[in-house]
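TEACHING EXERCISE
Course module: macromolecular assemblies
Task: Read the component lines below, then compare them to the predicted structure of the full complex.
Student: A.B.
Group: 4
Components provided:
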Amino acid sequence: MTPRFVIASFLREADVLAGTRAARAAGYEVVDVYTPYAVHGLDQALGVRPSRLGVACFLFGLLGVAGALWLQVWTSAVDWPINVGGKPYDSLPAFIPVTFEICILFAGLGVVLTLFARAGLRPGRTPRAWAPGATDDRFVLVARLTSAVHDTARLTHLLRGHGAVDLAERIGEEER
Amino acid sequence: MAGHPLHPVVAAPPLNPPAFGPLPARWARGLLLAAAVGVAFTLLGWGVAHTRTAAGLLLAANYTLGMGLAALCFLVLVNVTGGRWATALRRVPEALAGTLWLGGVLVLLSFTGIGVLYEWSHADVVAGDPLLQAKQGWLDVGGFVFRGAVFLAVWWLFAAALRRHSLRQDEAPGPAPSRRRLVLSAAFLPVLAVTFSLATFDWLMSLAPHWFSTVFALYNFAGMFTAGLGALLVLTIVLRRLGPLAGLVRDDHLHDLGKLAFGFATFWAYLWFCQYMLIWYSNIPEETTWYVARGAGA
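Instructor-supplied answer key:
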């Protein structure tokens, strides 16, 4: 069935934390909580899994190391060997600084681009807010009700009990 | 938002962490036994293999001192950067910095090995060596011992002052002690940079008085800080498991400490390589001897 969303605005950090825990404990799916600043303990309350961006970071770093080493060995020892101070053509110590820097560059840029791609951040995207104030002074909780047994009224009551001040319901596709 | 009353600022209740009981008797006995065995073997070695024991004592003294000094650096950095995250575990580096006196005593004891460790301490060796003659103004036994004592005293006095202002905050909560710790720390940072570099020149680099490296003191600092962060992590994890820090130190704190340890371990390796690569590239005998000796084995 078409997913229904309940959007609840809270005024206090502690309330939105308690509301998130209560909604999840009651079996509702909390899609996300939008806050004006990073709230400590929210990741645990939401049950967010550890980020896998580290894997992407490592792979990009590895790619940088391999690419930088290949480029330097090929240019200095294979394609156009140059004698520098009597050192062997393929002197690894001399290649390490460039390899290190390229590794950092690839890992840093790669992980940011991966984040943008995964989060759907791109130029020209129209930002749509779930509720006014989500980027100002409100803590906005968005819960998704997927099955018929989920009762909007019960959830609304639950969240109001935890201090939600504005509640709205929306029916339709999930917005990203 | 107009119309919504601001919620009142509630004063935080005083923290009452579980009391740090004395170390379990079994542990205390085991640790004292280990210390007694160490002292006995040091005395035995002093008679049997004098040079080796002196070198071992120097190494042990510098590592022991390094733990306390690294913990002190950690506190100073946290104070200067306004890092509130470390408040939950601040007592651990403070206690570790409290071991500075022990490291200091060991360093002073290691001075008894000056005659066998440092070739510049022999007048006849210096007389036949132009380079050592040029360095004679700095490398002489009296100045060496005097400087060492001054460095140790300065570090210990500062650690004690920092500790006093931290404990004062428990008695009378308020921002004043934090402010004092910030001022003290900011003043201590340049002092530490100079004294630690000079101590490294004296105690470790002058073991090879013909060798040149401008990055060695910084390299030594990176190694010391990495080891100190490791000790800090182990102690924090143990205290969290045993109870005193359970609930106060969260996973996030350990992650932050782990990131610092990872960063400084990388920095340590970075500096090692900086030193190695420049010496490898220029290939000048007065610098390469250090690596030739270490590449050949003991």
